[in-house]
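Q: How would the structure tokens look for this protein?
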Amino acid sequence: QVQLVESGGGSVQAGGSLRLSCAASGISLSSEYCVRWFRQAPGKEREGVATINKWGTTGYADALKGRFTISRDNAKDTLYLQMNNLQLEDTATYYCAAPKNFAVCPADYDVYYWGQGTQVTVSS
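A: Here is the predicted structure in token form.
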């Protein structure tokens, strides 16, 4: 049974930092083609934040480049998202997600396994 558990969310003032973690069981985050962070703010669509593939290549939403860093600890099978210089618009629930046994990084979110999410609230 695949389980993804996010942690590390919280409340922070604008300009602050947080590091989110995603612990996996039933799936190897280092072996799957890609693992991703998404976020969803109230009243808005879910959006992709960052992706890391099995070779360690990373990708980011254009608006987040330079502030967010995705990384992975293969020994712990844990995914991270370091978020710096947080802004009010970064307030959202953040989710890690991974597809299992795919040879590409699928665009269909329905095939991903999802964590329960962790709330990030940025205040002024």
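The chain has a mean pLDDT of 95.

The CA atoms of residues 5 and 116 lie 7 Å apart.

Upvote if useful.
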